[in-house]
Amino acid sequence: MADRQAPQINGSGKDGPSLSDQVYQYLVEGIVRGEIAYGASLNIKEIAAKLNVSPMPIRDAVKKLEGEGVAVVKPRSSSYVRTPSKRDVLQSVDARRMIELYVVSAIYPTVSVEQLEPMRRIVEAMRGEIERLRGCVDGSDEYQEARDRYIALDREFHATLCGLMNNAYVDKFYREVNLHLNMRFRHEVGRAHSLEQTFRDHEVMLQELEENSPAIIGTMETHLDRSRENIINGELFQTLNDE
Asked: What is the pTM of this model?
């Protein structure tokens, strides 16, 4: 597991998340960001020591990941992050497309500029990373770091968009889908297609939402179809088993 700074895990209050939920969120974030790689061990004792909690909430969190098809748990053996198949990834890509097209179709007529402010801040942060990329040597450490930050903002943009539905089931479904599409797949977007183009897509989508324009549906559809092509043509996807 990557050496990521451990969060402060606190005992849950009356309305706060449980210890196991906090551990689960920590593991989910690590997997989606690619800091916990496919095939990586989920050693209960090591995670408990890192987070300074007892093994029980770790076991609960890993068990939840198992139920979502993300982790493999073997009795009396170490658990690990399941490597998805090509079929898993394609199904996740199609599910993501279904969710996001549903969301934009539902919200575009009534969403307000005020509700979109968090997305505007994300787009401005994306603009800053694009400007940094323009000043970096392709392949340099500075370039890789700026690209990683940009891709994390890309993920935040889409998650924030789905959050505008205020629907817990949509949020849960979208989170589970993204567990099978971690940032290593999103890196393929950076290789196979211009990040400048993806940034323009996000600018246009934000503008169309602010204008309550139905054009957002077509823009999102094109954006997601392009992402799908980049993923299936990427190096990582080609290394996966078919089933």
From this structure: 0.80
